[in-house]
Amino acid sequence: MRSFIDLCLQLGVLRFGEFKLKSGRVSPYFFNAGLFNSGRALAELGRAYAQAIAGAGLEFDVLFGPAYKGIPLVATTAVALHDQHGRDVPWAFNRKETKDHGEGGNIVGSPLRGRVLIVDDVITAGTAIREATDIIRAAGAQPVGVMLALDRQERGQGRLSAVQEVEQTLQLPVTSILRLADLIDYLRGSGDAAQLAAIERYRSEYGVSD
Ligand code: OMP
């Protein structure tokens, strides 16, 4: 966990400051998965996803990455599951625009069948995950879970976190490589008092306990 946080800090994926979120909240930290933008960074990210998937003992038949951001994420995860865990898992992604020539259809890669695990970066409103589950069901397969890079553990529409809302409304377990609680533990150990205080304030205002 520490090494994944170190990597995110080194790459600028994880930053501290003031960031306006999709929700309108002003957050003292931000996670930008688009900055895993080199070969090494993407390889390391894939290893972290694969480790989290193996560690959680998730069972599935196909990995799915929702377009666009989920595409490199799912690809690197599939590579790492093979290289690090000896599992050759089929993977797929969707096109956003439907193709009416050539091979047709809007799923690229493995056909969606059986149990499908969705790989994504963060859940904000859950819209992207809802769309992904619709695509998977329309293909005749069954969404069985979501693996995220970061769970911000903050409230969605109501009392529950955005992640818990997805778990409840879509009946889908959501797991993540990193959670806000892990980041707080890290900061407690690393001794950056100002960053820690800002994040703890934010969590007491918008956070959920677990
Ligand atoms: P997609 O990855 O395209 O679903 O977008 C994720 C959304 O979450 C984007 O609008 C980001 O600006 C936003 N986001 C992050 O990527 N990282 C965060 O730490 C927080 C947010 C957010 O706005 O809640």
UniProtKB/TrEMBL annotation:
Keyword terms of this UniProt record: Glycosyltransferase, Magnesium, Pyrimidine biosynthesis, Transferase
Pfam families: Pribosyltran
E.C. number(s) listed in UniProt: 2.4.2.10
Binding residue positions for orotate: F30, F31, T124, R152
Enzyme class: transferase
Domain of life: Bacteria
Annotated gene: pyrE
Protein purpose: Catalyzes the transfer of a ribosyl phosphate group from 5-phosphoribose 1-diphosphate to orotate, leading to the formation of orotidine monophosphate (OMP).
GO cellular component assignments: cytoplasm
Family: Belongs to the purine/pyrimidine phosphoribosyltransferase family. PyrE subfamily.
Matches recorded under PANTHER family: OROTATE PHOSPHORIBOSYLTRANSFERASE 1-RELATED
Gene Ontology terms describing biological process: 'de novo' pyrimidine nucleobase biosynthetic process; 'de novo' UMP biosynthetic process; pyrimidine ribonucleoside biosynthetic process
Residue intervals of the Phosphoribosyltransferase domain: 40-155
Record carries keyword Magnesium: yes
Protein name: Orotate phosphoribosyltransferase
Amino-acid positions noted as binding 5-phospho-alpha-D-ribose 1-diphosphate in the UniProt annotation, renumbered to this chain: 22, 68-69, 95-96, 99, 101, 120-128
Record field: catalytic activity: orotidine 5'-phosphate + diphosphate = orotate + 5-phospho-alpha-D-ribose 1-diphosphate
Pathway the protein takes part in: Pyrimidine metabolism; UMP biosynthesis via de novo pathway; UMP from orotate: step 1/2
NCBIfam families linked to this entry: pyrE
Gene Ontology molecular function: any one: magnesium ion binding
Cofactor(s) required for function per UniProt: Mg(2+)
Quaternary assembly: Homodimer.
Record InterPro entries: OPRT, Or_phspho_trans_dom, PRTase-like, PRTase_dom
